[in-house]
Amino acid sequence: MSWHSIKEESLFKELKSREEGLSDKEAQKRLKIYGQNQLKKIRKLNALKIFLSQFTSFLVILLIIAAAILAVLGEWLDFSAIMGVIILNSLFGFFQEYKAEKAIERLKEMLVPRTKVMRNGKVVELDARNIVPGDVLVLSEGDKIMADCRILESENLQTNEAALTGESTPQEKIAGILPIEVHLAERTNMLYQGTEVVKGNCRAVVVATGMQTEFGRVAELVQKVKQDKNPLREKLDDFAKKIGFIGIGLVIIISFTGFFFRFSLIEIFMTAVSLAVSAVPSSLPIVITITLAIATQRMLKVKSLIRKLPAAETLGRATFICTDKTGTITEEKMQVKVIYANKKILYDFGKEKENELLFKIGILCNNARIEKTKDTEYLIGDPTEKALLLAGEKYGLDKKRETEKNPRIKEFSFSSSRKIMSIVRQGKNGYISYVKGAPEIIIKNCKSEIINGKIKPIDEKRKKEILKDYEKIASRGFRVLGFAYKTIARSANKITQESAERNLIFVGFQGMIDPPRKEVKNALQQAKRAGIKVIMITGDSALTAKAVGKEIGLIGKVIESSQFKKMSDAEISKEIYNIAIFARVSPEDKLRIVEILKKNKEIVAVTGDGVNDAPALKKADIGIAVGRGTDVAKDSSDIILLDNNFASIVKAVKEGRRVYDNLKKFIKYMLSANFDEIMVIMLAIFLGFPLPLLPLQILWLNFVSDSFPALSLSIEKEEEDVMRRKPSKESILKGITKFIVLAGFLAFVITFLIFYLHMEDIDKARTMALTTAIVFEMFLVFNCKSKEFVWKSPINKYMVGAVIISVLLHMVVIYTPLNIFFKFVPLSFAEWGEIIGLGALSFVIIEMSKIKFRKND
Fold first, then answer.
1. How far apart are CA 601 and CA 140, in angstroms?
2. Contact between 60 and 52 (Cβ < 8 Å)
3. Is the same domain home to 293 and 313?
4. pTM above the 0.85 mark?
5. pLDDT at position 66, please?
């Protein structure tokens, strides 16, 4: 039902109510029909289901299989380590998701429990849950609105609807009928659940409660939105599947080949299984957790609080950032940025004497005030009046001093029907009426104007000229107010509204806007260089949004909700790359934008603060709630922006890219290091040689190389070009395959060569081969730390320490009685020199190859 567009008589007839409200008996009947005025869950929270979902990742399944194989082999230490990682990661993920799914609980907390209602013709205070359609509410300044209502009568009514519509300034509300096509944010005769009265009072009839309200409809959307798999998880699952299939294939190939060459079936099977286990990057979950945890701490320093760990990485690969305007791009603080006085439009103004009267009227026809405490001072009042007060203070006028010199006599309040207000004050020689209001009303009520201190008559031609100047200012997105005054003789018997507001002397205009944050323009340029498309999505008007966009360099098409709704998904899908701003959007619009972008295979980050943003935040790859936002928005998000600043998002993108780069470095290292063992063993089998590595030796190699050195890659600093390249949408192996092939081949060659040269003593040959593989990997980890030459990247002290620890551990195993267990033998200095020499040669070859790899990139 379009409640905003029907006549009052039809309204009561449809609701079967009356101006005096319902009787208690009728209200009880309706309570049974409509249910309590509260939000209901469509999809219940299932803790067990959330916990079990942590084990659906293909990588986790692969690790569980690897752990089971280790248990069969009797390797209980490795089994315990892998299962410990799986359980810890699963518990962490469970607690994060469980918290996120409690968003609907937060919606309930936003509702105040009691409200004033007309029952049996009298005003009573009731539990808000017992409100029903047809009830008549009595609302005044400061009241939370507990249901969707149509206004019956009002006085100077303004509401704050930011949580629902995204509109940044208080909205004037009046009784009346509106056209059916009027957008939600412009329905001035309606009040909505979850918003609040900031000025005035009214009576309004309830038209919807609970889940039938606009607020409830958004709550339903939040619950119905299906959260897609995180892009990082998708890539890792794809990677794990490839590794898993390769591992299974190797077990089969090596087993059959070994059997064909008459190796012991048990020995060759155990070797094949050990190789398959080593091929699985068992430390990857730990590396991911450590990398993301470090990123979380670093992002906190740039005012971004990570709620879900994978979000830290995914933000780095975002291709689109859909940001709201108010408070994120702008300061959420109206400021006077342009004035019109003495026939001049001034964007650059100071304390010129001729403009004093304009600013004086701004603070004397004003109900905002400055409150001071011991440590700070703050403003109280309407955002527009606060802006005027600040402009006057900046000019050098002190409101307290001015009001003491000019005591208030009478006020004629602003209303949306009058669009003007006046405050009459005591002057030196009589009364002075200070007036402000809509420019066209002010000009209409003026008979003269003041120019450079001289009062001159004003005719219709001059009024049209002034209106043209007003339109020039308004066309740039400014909210413009006109200012005038008049003197009233002290002998006047009665000061009336007409005597205070007619035959005025026009002084000028003040134009206000919520200005962009200073750092946003530069952040936007950084995002552009990084290949990220930024779209502003706002509940504000297209004119205001376009003005802000122009100031920060966000240029492109501007689409309003009415136009957007008429376009098909296919049309939007093509056009969205040319659109810079969506204005007057509804929650469904924002959600639809996100869905279209995701269908286009874009990785989407969305910011929001209100209830209206929750569905889009949940659907996006990365939901970013601003710190001042509602609990609903925060609980539907992945990241909370603590300083509400768009520039902080771009800083967080940089951290996210660092995470992704470090994960790629780890995978590059692991694949280069692990697959050479497979090739060495396969070649030995084909040539009829003894096995170069025994099953236990393979697992030891896997432990030494996969532990500390691999983990040290997770704390590498970002590359210099991290914000000068496009986001990565390709496979996680993109750009590192050639490196892996070269490094793996070199490892295979030197390991097999060492084994072959010392085959007369098989235990010595195996010890030499395994030590060669370890030393090669200790050099390799430095090769992997940067795509640039290693000496150009900062020193990673943790990596140096990790390499020293790994080498010392291996030496302990070689030179202590433990060597019997692993079938190792001690090595001489000459043999160590041989191994280190080949490792160093490989290191140099890989470093030199980076020149060619960079050219190909």
1. 49
2. no
3. no
4. no
5. 67
